[in-house]
Every structure is written in C-alpha cells, then in structure tokens.
User: Fold this.
Amino acid sequence: MSPTTNRALLCLLWGSALAVALATRPLLPIVEARYVSVAWEMWTRGDFLVPYLNGEPYPHKPPLLFWLIHGGWWLFGVNAWWPRLVCPLVGLLCLGQTALLARRLWPDQPEIARSAPWLLFGTLFFTFFYTLVQFDLLVTACTLLGLLGLLQAAQGQHRGFAFFGLAIGLGVLAKGPVILLHLFPAALLAPLWTSSGRSPRWFLGLFLALLGGAVIALAWAIPAAYSGGEAYREAIFWKQTAGRVVNSFAHRHPWWWYLPMLPLLLAPWVGWPSLWKRPEASGLRHLFKPGRVVCFEKRREHLPEASHRYPLAFLTTWLAPVFVGFSLVSGKQLKYLLPLLPGAILLFAATLDSRKQLITDSRAPAYYIGVTGLFFTLLPLAAPHLGLPRLATLPVWPGALLILASMIGLRFWRPVALAPTIRGMTAASALIIVLAHLGPIRALAPTYDVTEVAANIGRFQKAGVIVAHAGKYHGQFHFPGRLRRPLVVIPVSSIKTWANQHPKAVIVVYRNRFSPPLPTEGALGAWDYRGRSQNLMLWRASDLAKVLTNKR
Assistant:
C-alpha cells in the first residue's frame, strides 16, 4: 500500500468516528460544556486575555484552547460544531507528529513510521478521547513538538531548540507548567541517548529555549494577571501550579493508582500476544536484555559523529521519569498520561517491526470484533442490573452481527502480514467507538443534553427574571443557552432564605442535593440529568420556598 493511501485510510477512519460522535453526542456536562462556556463568555465580553466563567475570572486553565475556539468562531461565526472540532484536529496533528518522531528515531525502518499512527489511533482511549473538548491533546501535541525539537538539536540543528522553546510556551498556554514535566526529563538526561547532550552548548540551548518559552507564556500571563485582579493573579502564579502539585484535593489517589490503569490506557495492543509471547525472540522484554538493543542501534550514516542517538534510551528518559512524577502527584486522572501514549506506541511499533516475520496471530482483529460483539450483546441484558434502564431497550442485533462477522473471519482466515493486521485492529477500534456512540451513548445522550434547560434559563433572563443556581455552578448552561448574564450561585443550605427574599426569581436545583429529594409537582420543569430521572429542575423561588417549608 502506498504511503498516500495509507494516510488516506487513516484519515477516513478519523473522520468517520468523529462524524458519528458529533451527530450522536451533545457537549457533555460538566467538563465539555464548561470549557466551551468559558470561551463563550470571553467572546461575549470581548475580553480575550482573561478566561471568565459565570462572570468571574476563571484561573483553572490557560487560554490556548479558548483562543483556538475563538479563531473558528471568527471565521465561521459562533456555532456548536467548531469547538468540538478543535481537539480532533489536534489529535490528527498528534498522529502526524508520532509518525515523524518514528521517522527521526528509525530512519532506515519506514514501516515503524507507517504503523505508529495506526497503533496510536487504534488505542481505544485515544480513539474516544480525541472526540472530546479537553486540554490534554494540546499538551500531547506540544510534548511531541518539543521532543522533535530535541532530536533536531541532537543532530546539530540549532533550530531544534527554537521548537523546544516554542513547545514550552505553547504548552504553558495549553495547560500550565505541567509541560515542563513532560519535556525536561528527556532534555536533561540527553547524555544517555546522544553524545551531543554532553556538550555545554546543549545545556545552553536548553536554557535559552526555557527562556524563550517563558517569554511566550509571560506575554499572556503578566497582562492577564493585572487585568484579572489580585485573586486571579495569585491563582495563576501559585495555586494552579505549585499548589496543585503539593496538595491536590481533586482526583486524589495513591501513588500506585496508575499501574493497574495502564492496561486500560494501552488497550487493545497491550493484550496482543505478539507483544508478549516467546520472550526469547519477541515481545517488549527482549528490548531490555543486557547487552542487546534490537532495532535501537546507532544511526551513523544519517547523523554527525557527535549526534548518535539511541531510540530506546530516548524513549526511556522520556517515559519513565514522567510516569514516576505523575505517580507522586496526589491528583490523578488517566487522561494526564495521554501525552505519554505516543511514546508507548513507538515502543510497540518498534517491537512489532522487529519480529514482523514471526507474526502468527493475525486473526487478532476477528477476535477483537467478536469480543466487542459479545459486549454489545450482553449490555442490554445487564443494563437493568447496572442501574441503566435506558440501555435495556438497545437492540442486540448489532452485537450479534459482530459476533457473526468474527466467526466468518475466523472461518476463512488466511495468514497476512503485520501491517494489514494492525490496520484491521485499528478499524475495529474505530468501529467500537462508532457502535458505542450509536448505541449506549446515544441512548444516554438525552440525559446529558442541557440545551432545553439552558434555553429556558435564557428566556427567563431576557424577561428580566433573576435566575439562581443551587450549589456549585460549573458553567454548563451558558453556551448551550447562549446566556449573557451570570447565574446567582446560592449554597444549598441557604436556598430557603434566599427564595423567600427573591420570590419572583427562578432557581436551578438538583433533586439529589436535597434530603428527601424534592417533588416534581409544582416545578416549572424537570429533566433527566446525567443518568438520573428528573433530577434537574427549574423552580419559581416562591413555590420552592413553600415546598422547603412544608418539608420541615
């Protein structure tokens, strides 16, 4: 298969899964809707320096993602589809960067560069995550840009340090100083993977790159700090950086939490027997045998004498320190490891390429599709027992069809080469994401779609009615309702008092935040929300005050 056809097929899978996701799933509250609402508030205020949420400066995230959303709105007008297209486009960039990184590390083994993006897109976590409005793909792209710059610098091309500095600056604007943890271990440990890293010029280049990255980040941070006020200034310079590392109260987990999560991050490839069986001739383990580095030898013919690179050492100095660092930070989410995924995929790609003549389990796509079919067949049967009654109505025929396809594939299976097997596995991963969106995600989508509620809030605000929110508000209604005024946030414990003081106001409440839960009778409206039946409600303040009084 030609390289052009190879890339076109991958882009086709990328576009197909994305189209289905956009058609079947709304902006998910709380996270996706919140981030787009921040971009919306910046847009309506005409303030592109300080992010805002519900009328207050929002210090939790830098502005790069919001700026990218604004760029699309400037070109196409305000719409709901462009914010959901930004991160998939960044994900497509990451696929290309991963291929380029493989080409730089193994210039004589082009099959690694061809298979690496397929392996990355075939990773279920990546295939689902790239459809979400999140910051971590931006960090991944900045990380890959910085690492590509390091490899250029190791070849004696000083512009590589410029790319490294650009990656630092953009990474800080994407998600803060966490980009330093992703980039600097490989840079500081460069003597382990390149002789250029032993030169004082190397560390001078790193210092200048860090300085350049700081200039890029501070060009936004300093004006924003003065514009956003003292609390915002303190938050972006301390609380959202060192404060989170020292004591993160959100998503706290023990140091070992990531270890059992790795199979989920690396599925389905981590379960492919070709990576693990016969360790004397295949699998990842043989790459670490003392005195033997398969497919990671020096590339003297392509590099100056001072620039010999060891790909295994390069990947190890990138992945290992960062993984340990994230394990030591108290706040943990699996998505934080997304920037490491391309590195793990490169290890897989090199391992598979080193034994491509020994591949014997090319039936893996058929098994993969069969297991997927079994899951989609059993899901409707198990849904009532899982507290997901909406999924009980899903048809079982798609899963049965997949099982049948798997059986036919196994019956008429013939040995094929490594590349078609990888493409088949990746296509199966894309199919899983498509079926997940057409099945369970579409069934649950109405409970995550806040458009109707947000539109009602907007109508009340346009009529001059005060709208309040019971408990913490995450901004999930502002963009779906195109709201231009903040909601009044009232602690749940103070709702009764506030309602008596503002009887004509409207209050957004959640049944599960009250004990016993509020009745639906008398509410202006009640909607299913995040899987809970009629959990999201709008109440006239005077009516809610009466209900709360009667409950006492």
Notes: Residues 27 and 33 are 5 Å apart (CA to CA). The two ends are 73 Å apart (CA to CA). Residues 200-228 form the longest helix (29 residues).
